[in-house]
Amino acid sequence: MPLYLASPFDRAIETPPRAAPPGQPTPEIALPLISPPGNVPVLAPTLVLLPDGPRKASKLGRHFADLWYILVKAGAFLGAIYLMVLGLPLLAFLMLAGGDPERLFLHLDNLSAHYLAADHARRALFAGELTLGFFGVATFAAIWRLPAFLDDVAAGLSEDRT
C-alpha cells in the first residue's frame, strides 16, 4: 500500500451535514469581523470547505512521505540488526552450556571473574576487540539483509513517479 494514501494530509475530506450535495462544489464559509470590547477589530478564522472527494497528493508531499517512510524503515532495519548482534553472545553461551541455565551462569561467572581479575590494559584490549567484533558482525548482518530491505522499501514507496 502506498504511504501517501495513508497520511492524514491526503485522505478524503469529510463533508459537513449542511454542505452541498455530492458532486456540487461546497461554498466558502467566512465569519465576519469581530470587534472586542477594546475596539480593536479582530478577524475571526475563516473556514473554507473543499469539494467532495479525495485530494491529490502534491509532488512535494509524496516526496516527504517517501522520505519519512525510508527513515522509519531504515531505523527498524538497523534496530533489528543490532538486537540480533547483541543476542548472539547469549546464544553462544547458551549453546556452550547445552541449554542448561545453571551451566550458562557458570560460564558467565567464569568470564566475569577473569575480566575482573585482569589489569586495566587487558580489560581495555578485551573491550576494544569485543566492540570491533560486534561492529563486524553487525556489518555482515546488514550486508546479508540489505537486498531484502531494499526490495521492501521499494515496494512501499508511492507509485506515482511523475
Give a verbal description of the structure.
By secondary structure, the chain is mostly helical. The chain folds into two domains: 1-55, no CATH class; 58-162, no CATH class. The chain has three helices and two strands. The protein has a two-stranded antiparallel ribbon. It is elongated, with a radius of gyration of 30 Å. The two termini are 18 Å apart.
Topology:
Layout: E1 33-34, E2 42-43, H1 59-96, H2 101-117, H3 120-156
Antiparallel strand pairs: 1-2
Helix pairs in contact: 1-3
State the helical fraction. Answer: 55-70%
Taking the alpha carbons of the first and last residues, their distance comes to 18 Å
Largest sheet: 2 strands, antiparallel
Average pLDDT confidence is 77
Helix/strand structural class = mainly alpha
Write down how many β-strands occur, each being a DSSP E stretch of 2 or more residues.
2
Number of domains: 2
Unreliable sequence segments: 1-7
Name the assembly state.
single chain
Question: Which percent band covers the strand fraction?
Answer: under 5%
Rg, alpha carbons? 30 Å
- The backbone outline, from C-alpha atoms, is elongated
Q: Encode the helix/strand succession as letters.
A: EEHHH
Count, helices: 3
Spatially, the strands of the biggest sheet line up as 1-2
Structure keywords:
2 domains, single chain, 162 residues, two-stranded antiparallel sheet, mainly alpha, elongated
